[in-house]
């Protein structure tokens, strides 16, 4: 037998894992500086770790109460009804739930190019078709309603990433409002705020009372440091919030993740430290790296280095892992995640050595 035709479904290419690279280089993983996946360099909140340990003791029970508790806490935080909070396995899971709720076979979606790989993947998994709108490097990856609307042709879902991955730019609030006003009534705009904690721009969640065609996705993977637990959520308008019950996988997230997320949500100190440190690191990278960078509102910086894959490869040989953005359609760039102060300094120093070695006419 065969699967259905999956030829349009490109596999997701993650940043390389630290164990994998360490093995290749014959190094201890501890010796590597891994700044390739926008992970939290401080790890999870200690309170979340404690909650996860405790939850593990009850891992034989289906997570009904834990799901309700996290949903309630998020509803309170965002000043929404609990129905409007769609808890999911990672924000990626929320993207799936939204696609499942919106797409009929053959419906089209509009995704940013370059952009986050999972939007088109999720749409295709749900029998959707994919069109793209450009986020132009020539404009410093500026995001505007007009640039999206130029490409827009009545698609069922339009994905925007703010702050954008991998560029770091934002779609300003007035541009998002202009977009919501301009698209068809039956077009959902998904505002992906995976990096929302790192910016001072208010969340699009504030628009949910006024607009029925917007949904917001958020995650515990980045500022909360729980990427390994796969926990995130969507915030949706009241009008169709009850669709969740019809599209989610039963017990939408696991009990350990739910309890850890609930504890993490309460640890303001950990989030603040993570965000402040990322703000320092992105300034440091922009100031000290010997390559043009783009202003970032996230916990990473995109840098134009010439040959991204050569730079990433050579940096890796010296123990610093950054993201080669070839898979995003930006082979001339690398994306450097914000690390601890020590790791960020080391990464910039190593990258600068690599860049100097690679300069034209200089033999490496
Ligand atoms: C990291 C990321 C996500 C979600 O990650 P999860 O780990 O699935 O929560 C979503 N969108 C963008 C743009 C991201 O970079």
UniProtKB/TrEMBL annotation:
Q: What GO terms are given for molecular function?
A: histidinol-phosphate transaminase activity; pyridoxal phosphate binding
> Which top-rank group of organisms is this from?
Archaea
Residues bearing PTM N6-(pyridoxal phosphate)lysine: 222
Q: Membrane spanning segments where?
A: none
Q: Which UniProt keywords apply?
A: Amino-acid biosynthesis, Aminotransferase, Histidine biosynthesis, Pyridoxal phosphate, Transferase
Main EC class the enzyme belongs to:
transferase
Which biological process terms from the Gene Ontology are attached to this UniProt entry?
L-histidine biosynthetic process
Recorded metabolic or biological pathway in which this protein acts = Amino-acid biosynthesis; L-histidine biosynthesis; L-histidine from 5-phospho-alpha-D-ribose 1-diphosphate: step 7/9
Cofactor requirements of the protein: pyridoxal 5'-phosphate
- InterPro entries xref list: Aminotrans_II_pyridoxalP_BS, Aminotransferase_I/II_large, HisP_aminotrans, HistidinolP_aminotransfase, PyrdxlP-dep_Trfase, PyrdxlP-dep_Trfase_major, PyrdxlP-dep_Trfase_small
Instruction: Specify the Aminotransferase class I/classII large domain's residue ranges.
Output: 31-351
Catalysed transformations (reactions) = L-histidinol phosphate + 2-oxoglutarate = 3-(imidazol-4-yl)-2-oxopropyl phosphate + L-glutamate
EC number annotated for this UniProt entry: 2.6.1.9
Q: Which family does it belong to?
A: Belongs to the class-II pyridoxal-phosphate-dependent aminotransferase family. Histidinol-phosphate aminotransferase subfamily.
The name this protein carries in UniProt is Histidinol-phosphate aminotransferase
Q: Which organism is it from?
A: Halobaculum saliterrae
């Amino acid at each position: 037998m065969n699967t259905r035709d999956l030829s349009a479904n490109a596999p997701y290419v993650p940043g390389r894992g630290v164990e994998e690279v360490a093995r290749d280089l014959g190094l201890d993983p501890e010796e590597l500086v891994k700044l390739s996946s926008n992970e939290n360099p401080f790890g999870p909140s200690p309170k979340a770790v404690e909650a996860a340990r405790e939850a593990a003791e009850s891992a034989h029970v289906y997570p009904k109460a834990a799901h309700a508790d996290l949903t309630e806490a998020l509803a309170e935080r965002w000043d929404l009804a609990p129905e409007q909070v769609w808890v999911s396995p990672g924000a990626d899971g929320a993207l799936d739930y939204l696609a499942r709720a919106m797409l009929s076979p053959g419906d089209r979606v509009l995704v940013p190019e370059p952009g986050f790989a999972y939007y088109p993947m999720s749409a295709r998994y749900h029998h959707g078709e994919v069109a793209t709108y450009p986020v132009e490097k020539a404009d410093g990856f500026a995001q505007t309603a007009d640039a999206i609307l130029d490409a827009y042709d009545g698609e069922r879902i339009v994905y925007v990433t703010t702050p954008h991955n991998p560029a770091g730019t934002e779609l300003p609030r007035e541009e998002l409002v202009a977009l919501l006003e301009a698209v068809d009534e039956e077009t959902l705009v998904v505002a992906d705020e995976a990096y929302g904690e790192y910016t001072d721009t208010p969340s699009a969640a504030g628009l949910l009372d006024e607009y029925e065609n917007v949904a917001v996705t958020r995650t515990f993977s980045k500022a909360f440091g729980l990427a390994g637990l796969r926990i995130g959520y969507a915030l949706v308008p009241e009008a169709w919030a009850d669709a969740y019950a019809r599209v989610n996988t039963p017990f939408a997230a696991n009990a350990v993740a739910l309890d850890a997320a609930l504890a993490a949500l309460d640890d303001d100190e950990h989030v603040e430290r993570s965000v402040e440190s990322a703000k320092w690191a992105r300034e440091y990278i922009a100031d000290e790296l010997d390559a043009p960078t783009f202003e970032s509102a996230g916990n990473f910086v995109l840098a134009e280095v010439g040959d991204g894959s050569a730079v990433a490869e050579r940096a890796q040989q010296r123990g610093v892992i950054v993201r080669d953005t070839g898979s995003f359609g930006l082979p001339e760039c690398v994306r450097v995640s914000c690390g601890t102060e020590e790791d960020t300094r080391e990464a910039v120093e190593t990258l600068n050595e690599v860049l100097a070695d690679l300069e034209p006419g200089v033999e490496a």
